[in-house]
Amino acid sequence: MGLRLNIEGSESIKLKETSIMRVKFGADIPHDSNARSTDLGSTVLIEGKILTAVDGEEADDTSKIAKWSLVPAENSDCYRNVEITVVSASQIVRQITVPNAFVVGYEEDFSDDTGAGVFRLLIKQKKDKMINLKFEGGFSGE
């Protein structure tokens, strides 16, 4: 199974299957609610490797994600279109499109043991645009 990440905004950010390790999607409603709430939100946690460029390869786009996490709320570029694709046996199992995503949290962790870094990106969909979030799947992939 492979995971791909595409982020579109003032610049394109693309991470391939070799980078993305885990994606967790969640739907949020207030925990004190006794019925289905109209205050619905969503979060996506993306974890991946920070890969080192070797033999003249281009560096991965993780540094662009770090820069996106620092864009202030006053700048409209803090909202970006995020597409996560889950591929298995040339089939797209899930394609999650978060069209007005913003960064809630971002961290990088580097270790001498592995020689590679790991990043964790937590994004949310803008609440007034929840209707635009797409969950698709079951079609052929590339």
Describe the structure.
- A hairpin with a 3-residue loop joins strand 1 (2-8) and strand 2.
- The model has no long low-confidence stretch (mean pLDDT 87).
- The protein contains one helix and nine strands.
- By secondary structure, the protein is mostly beta strands.
- The protein has one helix at residues 62-69; strands at 2-8, 12-15, 20-28, 41-50, 80-88, 91-110, 117-125, 134-136, 139-140.
Quick recap:
The chain has 142 residues and is mainly beta. The protein has one helix and nine strands.
* H/E topology pattern: EEEEHEEEEE
Overall 3D form: globular
- Radius of gyration over C-alpha positions, nearest whole angstrom: 16 Å
Low-confidence stretches: none
Number of strands: 9
- Quote the distance from N terminus to C terminus: 13 Å
Biggest pleated sheet: 9 strands, antiparallel
Q: What is the overall pLDDT average? A: 87
Please identify the structural class as seen in this structure. Answer: mainly beta
Give helix % range. Answer: under 10%
| Fraction of residues in β-strands | over 45%
* Count of DSSP-assigned helices: 1
